[in-house]
Amino acid sequence: MSNKSNHTFHIPVMGLSYTIDSPIKVAHLGISSVISIVEHNLIEKIREHYSRLFNKPFEPITPKIEDFRAKRITSYLNLVDEIVKEKVDHLKNSIAENREEIEKYFELLPTFSELKQRFNEFISKNSNLKEIQKWINDNLTVGDIDVNIMTKLDGPNFSGKTQLPVEQNNAHASLRGFANSNLNSSVVFSAGMNPRLFSYLETFEDFYPDIEGNLKKKIIIKVSDFRSAMIQGKFFAKKGLWVSEYRIESGLNCGGHAFATDGFLLGPILEEFKNNREELFLSSFEILKDALMKKGKIVPKQIPFTKLTAQGGVGTAEEHQFLIDKFNLDSVGWGSPFLLVPEATSVDEATMKILSDAKEEDLYLSNASPLGIPFNNVRGTTKDIERIELANTGKPGSACPKKFLAFNTDFTEIPLCTASTQYINFKIKELQKENLSEEDYKLKYAKITEKECLCNGLSSSVLIMNNLNTKMEGEAVSICPGPNMAYYSGKFSLKQMVDHIYGRTNLLNTNNRPNMFIKELKMYVEYLSNKIQETPIPFSEKQIQYFETFKTNLNNGIEYYKQLFYENKETLKISYENVIAELQELGNEIQQMLLKVKTA
User: Does the pLDDT at position 2 exceed 50?
Assistant: First the structure.
């Protein structure tokens, strides 16, 4: 596969199930996407489903089989790889029978695509099918079949009460499953550093470069600032491992879990990456060469091909192209809008209707995640309704059959999930001893029962839409779109969404969608306001310093945006006067918040 994709967007991982089969749907058309691979139970069900669908042999991998978690993942990824290769072969050979399929591949490419222009030029001068077919074989690129591991999902597994070795931890087993697969692709690490997991990569030869800097298995890290990228890049380099892509994500204007920065905004962060990318690559490369020499491994002659990409809240063709041109990005991630594209993702009809109807006020940062990290949510999901009904009838919580988010040891030696019935019952017993007023009791009860079983809720949708067994997961669905979801309504074809990305059509349901940078800024101002309100008075010196630092970072971002929008008002197709007025208003709001902090 080529290092350089013919598309300038990718589909990021979404939930546990929403992109679990996306490569099967879009990779043969040259579009890259990402599979979440930690939930091996779900993966085994989807492997069986696609084995039947494509007439492949299927042998179940049961918990009785040694290393079954990793083997389930390896088997599914090998199946996906095999199906995609067959679809690519079919696509390449279709020119002789039916040009529609191959034409779809080229229609999806951006108008400025060099490959599209070369193809059109070639077929205008050649009518020989064999020559055309050879050209297609030589030039078509396939979308990447990448995988995602959330580094925090690395809890221990047990045999009875005996904790298994660290290699059997959930994320470790997932990584091993990917490393042992036939894929020539990347693992995306999200949710920050996990030194123990990252060090485990050293045991797999596929992650080491050859003399030309090529890698069979690549590393992508999601980062929210330049400092984090530099630290993690050097950490890997010291082990002889190379980060092939730094995937910069907005702290708040994204889907799934939200990892807020201390007020650092996406625009200035991207500017820092643009200005210092060579330093990032060169400094890591020097460390890499030294580490590889010490290990007696091949030292590449040059810096391996490395990408900078970004994602989080992009919604128009103008924003998309601006990010690429202004910040020299290799690709931009489009997540939430693709949840309305059945040709690319797997969302059941009822949940898709909720997404399609969602307004700005329906999309919010919740405390639903058992990890204790803010979680993007949409009102009215069946999982949320189920959770509230169970809490109201005095039976809160989940049975917790999968235990991927079981980390709490406040009450038991074996970790519990904070969304589990067992943990919640412990907390309620504590609550009952506090002798609170009825109103205070209800508030604390609601907070305790706010956690959702995400392991099941984020898995069930793909099972429902494919009429698969949901006995373990149940029928209730959780979904985690970003705020950008509010500006799209309906169900779209893959061509419609790609045409929207490249400016060939407009799918927005409003003419008043805020610019992605302004939207993120507003979210950070609201986030800071909530932090201040949640903090008991009087504030400590440390808390005041945190708020001041947050304010300074936001104000620096506002000043950066004033200049950015002034210089690019035509490119971004915005009302410069309105944007400046919004920036001024938000700056005043921040100032007023901090005045209250100082006088509290």
Answer: no
Reduced to 3 states (helix: H, G, I; strand: E, B; else coil), residue 289 is helix
List, in order, residues 6 or more apart from 281 with CB less than 8 Å away: 303, 306
Give the model's pLDDT for residue 1.
35
The DSSP bridge partners found for residue 411 are: none
Span 248-286, pLDDT tens digits = 999 999 999 999 999 999 999 999 999 999 999 999 999
pTM: 0.96
d(CA 450, CA 78): 38
Contact residues for 471 (Cβ-Cβ < 8 A; gap 6+): none
Please state, as a whole number, how many other Cβ atoms lie within 10 Å of the Cβ of residue 68: 16
> Please, how many CA atoms are within 13 Å of residue 158, restricted to the half-sphere of its CB?
12
pLDDT digits 0-9 by tens, 356-403: 999 999 999 999 999 999 999 999 999 999 999 999 999 999 999 999
| Structural domains present in the chain | 11-340 (no CATH), 349-478 (no CATH), 514-599 (1.10.132)
Which residues does 549 contact at the CB level (< 8 Å), separation at least 6? Answer: 262, 263
Q: Are 76 and 117 in contact (CB under 8 A)?
A: no
Does residue 507 sit in helix, strand or coil? coil
Contact between residue 174 and residue 216 where contact means Cβ atoms under 8 Å apart: no
Integer Cα distance of 150 and 376 in angstroms: 16
